[in-house]
Every structure is written in structure tokens, then in C-alpha cells.
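Late entry, evening session. Most of the bench is empty. Finally got around to the prediction I had been postponing all week. Sequence below, unchanged from the version circulated by S.P.
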Amino acid sequence: MIAAVLAFVAGAAAGAGLSYARWLRGRAEIKALRLRSRLLYELAEGDLEQVGDELEEACERETADPSLFLALAAIDRERERIGRAKSIHRTVLASEDLPSEQRVAALLGLGRDLLREGNERAAVGALVRANSLSPRSVATLRSLAKALEQAGAWERAAAAWERVERQVHGRAARDAKIGRGHALAEQAENFRRAGDEKRARRSAERGTMFAPDSAHSWSVRARVEAAVGDPQEAMIAWQRAWELGPAQAGEIVEEAWRFAERQGRQADVMARMLASSRDTTDPALAIALAHRVALQHPEQAASALEQVVATSSFAQLALIRLRLRRGQRDQAREAALRATASARLVCGRCRDDLRETPFRCERCQRWDTGVREA
């Protein structure tokens, strides 16, 4: 009888202990779920400092969870704490029993850290290792393609973008195709400089085929067509380039004009400039074209500037100078009294200033995003 009672009590205690353990585990899971939900909300709001602080506390409590450390390293990279992000990723990678999926994530994060730091060679090495472990990882392939671009390995970058394009659909596939076009355009530029005109032309044509709305790819094609001796195709490409990239139109127009002077085709390029200036509503393009058009057709140049003077102080100044050169003092005074806004060249995606590389944003690494911002 006593043995039966003891057995019953022991069973009841074991059941109560098991139930209590399950309750504690469920409570911990609910708490972790609430933490993750809060972190996702704060991350969506852009509160990186708060997310980073909470992740640090979570890492101190749960030292055996690599995913928390990987998340903290990613946040540190966005907070420009590149050194600590690299240290976290390398510490996670030092674990011998790290699951394959998390090893790929750690290598990917390390590659992005190194890329942000400017160490392209090491970044490519880390990303190649990540890609070898997970060949179908789109995130790894994208980062690898960007690292290869920054390292100047344009042929390998084009191949990486092609692999991305094969694995995604819709807008992502279109973006990968455009990235491939930019890589091919830079490859064509390298061939042109090396004197390999045949391969340069083939790469330039493919570059404009994959990135048809890119001022960068069309400007490269114009240089290649000029080098292989097809001035008509070069003029068409330059016109496409300055119309697609008004923020960089000043450089493109001057390059086209110098080529036209060498070839004796000033009338052809002037006709194209007049056609573009009549239709444009972009201040940067109107100013760039007016600088040349005014030499032969000052009234057409003034009309192009009149269309955009209300939105650009640079256009206003160009119009005032044009009027003064022609002795039209009253019209110059009228243009000077108009209220306008100043403008700067920024990236249309991340709003960062474009200073040294007008075709490509150094911050977000995107091509042809330059806009004049009032």
C-alpha cells in the first residue's frame, strides 16, 4: 500500500515537473516571439540604435544562438561599426558545429562587411566561399556580383548577374539583367582601351541590349562606335546617352561635340542637340545643350532655358548670361528677377550626393540614378 502511494506521488510529481517545464519553455518561446516582433517593427521604422541595443542584450542572454549574433553584426554594419561586425562574423564562423545555412549567412555578412570597408579582394573571397556552399543563394550571388564590379572584374560580374537573372523573376530579373548590361559596357570599355575593337563592339551592343535605358551603357557604346569608325551610330548613341542621363549631359555633350569636330560632322550633332533641347523639361539637359546650341542658334537655346528656368537657378543664370551676351539687357533683368530653386546632383534611390562618379552611386552602388534635386 505504501509502495503504491509512493509510486503515485512520484508520478504526480514527475507529471507536475514536466508540465512546469513545458510551461516555462512555452513562456520563453512567447517571450522570444514578442522580442522578434518588436525588433521587426523597430527595424521597419529605421530605429537601428534601439534594435542594436536590444540585440546586444539578447546575445548576452542567449550565447548559443548564432542567428542573434548574425543579426547584430548586420545591424552594426548599417551603423558603420564595420570592425565589430567583422569580428562577430569571424567569431561565428570559428564554430565547428555551425549549421551550413548559418555558415553561408556568416560568410555573406563578412563579405558585405569587407565590401563596405573597401576591401574588394577579401570580399570576393568570402562571397565565393559562400557561393560554393550555397550555389543557388540569390542574396550571395547579388553581393558577389557587386563585389566583382567594385573589384573591376567585369567579365565575372556579368556572369554572376546572368546567374542571378536565371534564378529570379519579374522586377528582380530585370534588375539583374540591367546589372549584366552595365558589366558588359565596362567590359567593352576595357576592350576599347586595349585596342580590341571587335570584342569591344560586341560587348557594347550587348550592354545596350541588356540595359537599354542606361546613359552609362549608351555613352560607352558611343565611344566604341567612334573607335571602330561608325560616326553615324556614334551620334545616335550619344544622343540616347544625353537624353537618358540628363544629370551627366554636360560631359556627354562635350564628348560628342569634340568627336563631331574631328569628323567634320558639326551639323549632324547640332541637329540632334536642337531636337533634344526642344523636347526636354530637365534643367540639367537644357543647360548642357544650350551651351553648344547658343553658338549657332541662340534663340532656340533661350527657348529651351525658358522652359526650365522656374525650377533651376543654374538655368536662370545660363539664361541671364545668354541674354547679356546678346545685348538684351531688359530680358536679362526680367530673367534675374524670377524666383528659382538651387539644385544638386544626388542619387534618386538613397539621396546621397554624387560627386566623383556621376553615373554610379558610391553608397548604394546603383547605376544611372543621378537626379538634380532642388
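Two things to note before I forget:
The longest strand covers residues 344-347.
Residues 49-144 form a domain with the Serine Threonine Protein Phosphatase 5, Tetratricopeptide repeat fold (CATH 1.25.40.10).
Will write this up properly tomorrow.
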